[in-house]
Design goal:
Layout lengths: L2 E9 L2 E9 L5 E9 L4 E9 L4 H18 L17 H12 L7 H12 L3 H10 L13 H7 L7
Antiparallel strand pairs: 1-2, 2-3, 3-4
Length: about 160
Amino acid sequence: MAFNLEYTSKHRDVTYAMTVVADDDGELGIELLGANDRGTVVAEGALRLPPGGATETAKLLREALGAIAGFEGKRIRQSVGNANQRWTRDQDITLREAWLSHPPTAPATEVIRTLAAERERTPAAIRARLPRLGCDPDVTGRVLTEETAALVGRDAIAG
């Protein structure tokens, strides 16, 4: 499927324009041009990506540009490896088992942080997923009852 996308952004006196063109085979062409208010080109570059190469290239560029921004004294918020990825049935099963394996005395926030790091998810994603698996996100090792499910929200299911 062929398509063209154009993005622009302005920072201080430089306007950046990015054009993405996909051909019928799925190959991507990406061109970047940055010009100041006087029309002087201050940034330019081009990439050619094979079909299916955009996701990994985007991750690589984000990491590289984040590191470079650090040299400029800026910080780019890094995303977690599996952020925005769908949960699989196996992931749900192992998360539920891991949560229920902890004693109720274990601090929930620490367990959530550990589970998040192991799964390359954010703590918020883990906490949001637990009720959907029938787990009480406030007490480790505990399943939701009908009463606690009603408090946690509409997506909570007793398990």
